[in-house]
Amino acid sequence: MFAESHGPQMSQQTKKLQVGILVCPGFAIVDTIGIHSVFGFTPDAEVHLLWKDKGMIEAIPRFPVHATTTFSESPRDFDVLCVGACPDEILRDEETLAFLKDRGSRAGYLVGVCSGSLILGAAGLLEGYRATSNFHVMDLLPHFGAIPTRQNVVIDRNRYTSGPATGGFDCGLRVLEKLRGEEAAKISELSMEYIAQPPFGTGSPELAGPELTRKALQLFAHFTEGTRRTVRELPSRRAS
Amino acid sequence: MFAESHGPQMSQQTKKLQVGILVCPGFAIVDTIGIHSVFGFTPDAEVHLLWKDKGMIEAIPRFPVHATTTFSESPRDFDVLCVGACPDEILRDEETLAFLKDRGSRAGYLVGVCSGSLILGAAGLLEGYRATSNFHVMDLLPHFGAIPTRQNVVIDRNRYTSGPATGGFDCGLRVLEKLRGEEAAKISELSMEYIAQPPFGTGSPELAGPELTRKALQLFAHFTEGTRRTVRELPSRRAS
Known about the structure:
2 copies of one chain form a homodimer.
Chain A: E1 17-22, H1 29-40, E2 45-51, E3 56-59, E4 63-66, E5 69-70, E6 80-83, H2 94-106, E7 109-113, H3 116-122, E8 130-131, E9 147-148, E10 153-156, E11 159-162, H4 167-180, H5 182-191, H6 205-219, H7 221-233
Parallel strand pairs in A: 1-2, 1-6, 2-5, 6-7, 7-11, 8-9
Antiparallel strand pairs in A: 3-4, 10-11
Helix pairs in contact in A: 1-4, 4-5
């Protein structure tokens, strides 16, 4: 899909949905792309890529990108606010956490993809909520008072959390259904031809078995070590 | 997933895989992200985001990005070369088509996601190959001598084509299996927790039915009109 302009024309009757997605140096671009695509192709929706400034950001894996909207330019009220995996620095970044806490406390729906749920947790937004993350770090959720729940998508009230990558499509489509109805969400799923066919059936530790899981954990240990260390050092926000 | 550096360290024994992904003004970022993620997180692989220059590019939906590698800096031999949906201008852009034809004729594997397959076709790389695209434009494939085949992923020799979005994950994992073996591909699928759960089961015209399909075609007509017009105006490359 593509266009010379900015997508389907806005009808005058509908209020534009405001959708915010956090981007930051070292963020995992794949985690954001499901929400970005679902709402970016939805008529009457405005997607903001949010960061402190609009300088160049290197995503992980390497993809040089820019925010479209700074924290200070950001809308006050989001219909959807989404956070994917970011480096562990974000878990200690008071400016970002304060921003997320403020916007998140008023947002219609909060989406945490992959270890983005830990960031929502660090911003105090998951206390008492059931939530998921990736299998490498989901044991850290209780540090923030969240209740780890091993599912691809976990919905608790207006908090939607998921595993990485396609978890963002799954959350995005479900949130779109709430905001714009089932037909709009079905058309979005159709337009993306979202009939993913994972070739190996090894998309979870339960499916892949302990040997492959051990190797995957090892291969990505350098990605997750910092997060584990940082969360352990954070003052606990566990609800008593 | 994330890291402060550029992913798993390179072993000295293995030749780095060279992976190229075309980016251009108005490209559909979602189509590229599967390949980008599969190979970006693969040890000993180098992913090049290819365009004429490194200035800012607006993806569709809006996402300001940059190429990492210009055509003139590009490796000569790619293990994988991938093209997703781009605006119809690309179908007439002789510089880009010449670049793709040259690199594509030598690449180990060619991947066309969504209407990226039409661009491979315009570069003369699909003559006599079975291929797919998105349902809006796949009837245009014969213009380039390709044989339209209605499947999520179509593999014909070293040409891998797919529908949009998650089609890139499906192709990427299958190509990774060829290049690095089944275990590496299984671990990649696991690391992305690629167990997509489309909530509505409407990810194809066959699943969604004629009424929703008509609405989706209508909603995206302004995206596809230009492509239809441009392809009709191109000199036919149909074999014989």
